[in-house]
Design a protein that fits this description.
With 278 residues, the chain is α/β, with parallel strands linked by helices. It folds into 2 domains: 8-21 and 145-275, Rossmann fold; 24-141, no CATH class. It has helices at 22-32, 41-46, 56-69, 72-93, 95-101, 103-106, 111-124, 148-159, 172-179, 213-219, 238-243, 255-263, 271-275, and strands spanning 8-11, 18-19, 131-133, 139-141, 145-146, 163-171, 189-197, 200-206, 227-232, 244-251, 267-270. The strands form 3 sheets. The protein has a 7-stranded mixed sheet. Strand 9 (227-232), helix 11 (238-243) and strand 10 form a beta-alpha-beta unit. The longest helix is centred in the N-terminal third of the chain and has 22 residues, at 72-93. The radius of gyration is 19 Å and the shape is globular. The mean pLDDT is 96.
């Protein structure tokens, strides 16, 4: 493919170009470092979801106790509740609903502040032994690793004058600095966008949400031409993968997705084989 004329390449970022999820890691950092935008009235309007209606009043009380009395225990209970809510929404209503709900966790700061957090998290989480201890005793692997074979692929494309873009469901400004490590410009990223008021991110998504069909809609914002190549790792990328002439699935062990990829003649590379080369 690279021996032919240059084309348009669209990559997912989290769990594709990297092992790990930078957007989710930023979310956990905001939660655990006491950076919630819960002082915004809009936070409490947007945090509602049918699956968690009974929890919101409790969270509001916990936030008041934390913000007025510096009660760390109340904040830890709030964080646990919000993480449990994210996981419950994902399990019951699907990932898109969960991703949309996380807008409340990224609001309350400027884009520059969120970008600075992401830059710190991207560097810090590449340190050996990166483990996150969450309230309630849960421990997760929060590490991030650049996948060198895909780094080399992106760099080869750039050298051959390809037009390379990153299309991600993570907040756009959390990924912009990370892509510079691949030789890409920050403006090559199209991700989840939140509205801004007085330089502060609001818990309101500017459509299209870059998830599944929304990824293709986002690509069509800047081109109506052929998508020559696309790479992704999950069903959330499927519409983008199917829209491309050449497609690479990063196989992370989902048997149903792999079977679909095989039936549609996608190129397939296991995540394990990529990570073994780091």
């Amino acid at each position: 493919m690279l021996n032919g004329p240059p084309g348009l390449a669209c990559f997912d970022f989290d769990n594709t170009l990297i092992r790990g999820d930078l957007g989710e890691s930023c979310m956990y950092y905001i939660l655990t470092q006491g950076m919630l935008g819960a002082d915004l009235p809009e936070f409490w309007k947007a945090v509602h979801h049918p699956l968690i209606e009974g929890e919101v009043n409790t969270w509001r009380r916990l936030w008041t106790e934390y913000s007025t009395q510096e009660d760390i225990s109340s904040y830890e209970q709030l964080v646990k509740g919000l993480i449990d809510a994210y996981e419950k929404i994902a399990a019951t209503d699907g990932l898109e609903a969960a991703y949309r709900w996380t807008k409340v966790l990224f609001c309350g700061m400027s884009e520059a502040e969120l970008a600075s957090i992401a830059k710190h998290v991207f560097i810090e989480n590449q340190e050996p032994g990166t483990v996150l201890h969450l309230p309630g005793g849960t421990t997760i692997d929060n590490s991030i690793r650049i996948r060198k074979p895909l780094l080399q692929l992106v760099q080869s494309m750039i050298e051959k004058s390809w037009d390379v873009h990153i299309v991600t469901a993570s907040p756009e400004c959390t990924i912009r600095d990370a892509v510079t490590k691949y030789g890409l410009k920050p403006e090559s990223v199209r991700g989840m966008r939140l509205s801004v008021r007085d330089h502060i991110l609001m818990p309101e998504i500017i459509e299209p949400m870059t998830y599944d069909q929304g990824k293709v809609a986002a690509i069509r914002e800047f081109t109506s031409g052929e998508i020559t190549f696309a790479a992704g790792d999950s069903f959330t990328d499927l519409s983008m993968l199917r829209a491309a002439k050449h497609t690479l699935l990063i196989d992370r062990g989902n048997a149903k997705l792999r079977a679909l990829a095989e039936s549609e003649n996608f190129w397939i590379q296991t995540a394990e084989s990529l990570d073994s080369q780091n």
